[in-house]
Design a protein that fits this description.
Elements lengths: L5 H12 L2 E2 L9 E2 L2 E2 H10 L12 H13 L11 H12 L1 H11 L14 H8 L4 H17 L4 H23 L29 H26 L4 H42 L6
Antiparallel strand pairs: 1-2, 2-3
């Protein structure tokens, strides 16, 4: 790889992150320059220092946290120009593991391993086998946006996240093609953390089970009544009355079974899409 782009990448990430924020719906909680209070507490503890508010984080601590927690985690120096920055920015926003999963999915058939969020030799080898890094960056950013849209916090932070990813895409592709990337710009709410723990929940299949079970049960009752109708056939009036009930029960039962099966298909389809978006399902 060429000279490290860590400092240049960090400069742009810090613009995206802004200063101190404590947005009500942001799962990151109190955050300063992209470093959450939880991460800062862990960093201070690892240094044998007492905890303090993330508001007091120094520039050197910021650089150290980003280097250890994010750049090294995604092995930025082993990634091609542009790809390193895109994966790094995603790691800051959603965690290194999630950002690496977007990369692994974006690699497609070149990557033979599991979508595990670990930047191992298999992932690095697949990245090195890519001829068009510009297109790879597009796929990574598409994966990221698909993930973000499946978070419960999307209605609140979606516009900010979309703007951020759009700019990350542009800067990354400029680096990948040897051009001078644009300066980063801050977009409010784009700095909110986007964690998989805040994902939407797949719909329950319980209603489908109830409907299908009721439909099967109704069909059984209809069959029983059909037998009763045969026995009452000499009594024309009673037989006709039971026959009407059989038709109604059979129709309702069929509708319940079909509706239950249809809803089950919808639930399974929704769950599969959610699993792909969150990188919890097969590629």
């Amino acid at each position: 790889m060429t000279a490290s782009r860590e400092k240049e990448s960090l400069a742009r990430v810090l613009v995206h992150e802004g200063g101190f924020v404590n947005l009500k719906a942001d799962p990151g909680g109190p955050t300063n320059k992209g470093v959450t209070q939880r991460v800062y507490d862990g960093y201070r503890k690892s240094k044998g220092l007492t905890p303090r508010s993330v508001k007091g984080i120094t520039s050197q601590e910021v650089a150290d946290v980003y280097h250890r927690q994010y750049w090294m985690a995604v092995k930025g120096d082993d990634l091609p120009a542009g790809v390193d920055y895109v994966v790094f920015d995603g790691a800051v926003n959603s965690g290194p593991g999630q950002s690496i999963k977007w990369l692994q999915r974006a690699l497609g058939p070149l990557y033979k391993g599991g979508i595990d969020g670990i930047m191992g030799v298999g992932t690095i080898a697949a990245v090195n086998a890519v001829n068009n890094h510009d297109a790879l960056i597009d796929r990574i950013c598409d994966q990221r946006l698909n993930f973000l849209r499946h978070l419960k916090t999307w209605p609140v932070f979606g516009n900010g996240w979309s703007s951020r990813v759009s700019e990350v895409r542009s800067i990354g592709k400029a680096w990948a093609t040897g051009e001078t990337p644009q300066a980063a710009s801050f977009v409010d709410t784009g700095q909110a953390k986007a964690f998989v723990e805040d994902a939407k929940v797949a719909p329950s299949s319980a209603p489908a089970d109830v409907a299908t079970g009721a439909g099967v049960g109704g069909g059984t009752v209809a069959g029983t009544l059909q037998g009763l109708q045969d026995q009452l056939s000499p009594l024309s009036y009673a037989s006709e009355w039971v026959g009407r009930i059989v038709v109604i029960l059979a129709t309702v039962s069929a509708l319940l079974v079909v509706g239950g099966l249809g809803y089950r298909w919808y639930v399974n389809r929704k769950a599969a899409r959610l699993a792909v978006a969150l990188s919890t399902g097969p590629a």
